[in-house]
Amino acid sequence: MKTIIYMVRHGESPYNEGNERTRGLTPKGKIDIEKVTKLLIGEGIDIIISSPYTRAILSVEGLAEHLKLDIKVFEDLRERHFASYIIENAELMSSIRESFNDPNYTLSGGESNAACQKRAISVLKPILKEHRGKKIVVGTHGLVMTLMMNHFDPAFGLEFLNQLKKPDIYKMQFEDLELEEVTRIWNA
């Protein structure tokens, strides 16, 4: 019995608006998310889950409204926490690179790739088991999405993360907990 997970990376989000939890979408992000809804509306989605961050919820909200489904929010699907202090983009990119070389690497007060992957998979695996044979949308973020996909196939790493778009959609087909196929369905 096939279970399908649609990983929906959130649309473009303004970095200067609110904090990590409350940042919304840019005007371009909002337009792109309408396309996400159109792409997924005919897929026979049964369940929609999301990170608690506003930009992830907004990225699947239109689909949920069209399908008359609730969005189940899971705190442990949030994006990886990088540090206890504000970091510049160059330091962030360097930290991300190092995290893929050493999954336990972290900046002070931050979270490692290993810890982030473990908490996200602790949500995803039970969902795969409980909703076997269903089609599930996950509103997510680039790094945590990469780490969840990497758990099932180590080919999904830094290079994959670096080529992701905002938004982006990947369809993952499972047989039980075995990942059989991954297809990118975002085409913009």
TrEMBL record:
Coiled coil: none annotated. SMART domains: PGAM. It holds the Pfam family His_Phos_1. Gene3D superfamilies: Phosphoglycerate mutase-like. GO terms for molecular function: phosphatase activity. InterPro entries: His_Pase_superF_clade-1 (IPR013078), His_PPase_superfam (IPR029033), PG/BPGM_mutase_AS (IPR001345), PGM_Phosphatase (IPR050275). GO terms for cellular component: cytoplasm. This is 2,3-bisphosphoglycerate-dependent phosphoglycerate mutase. It comes from Paenibacillus prosopidis. The lineage of its organism: Bacteria, Bacillati, Bacillota, Bacilli, Bacillales.
